[in-house]
Amino acid sequence: MAELRLGVLGGTFNPIHLGHLVLAESFRERLALDRVLFVPAGTPPHKRAEALAPALHRYAMTALAVAGHPGFAVSDVEVRRPGPSYSVETVETLASEWGGARLFFLMGSDTFLDLPTWRTPERLTAWATLAVGHRAGDEFRPAAAAAQAVLGRLGRRGWRRVPPEPGESADAVHAIAPDEVLLVEVQSLPVSAREIRRRLTVGQSIRYLVPLPVAEYIAHQRLYSAEPG
Ligand code: ATP
Question: Which residues sit with their C-beta closer than 6 Å to ligand 1?
Answer without folding.
Answer: 11-14, 19-20, 23, 107-108, 110-111, 188-189, 191-194
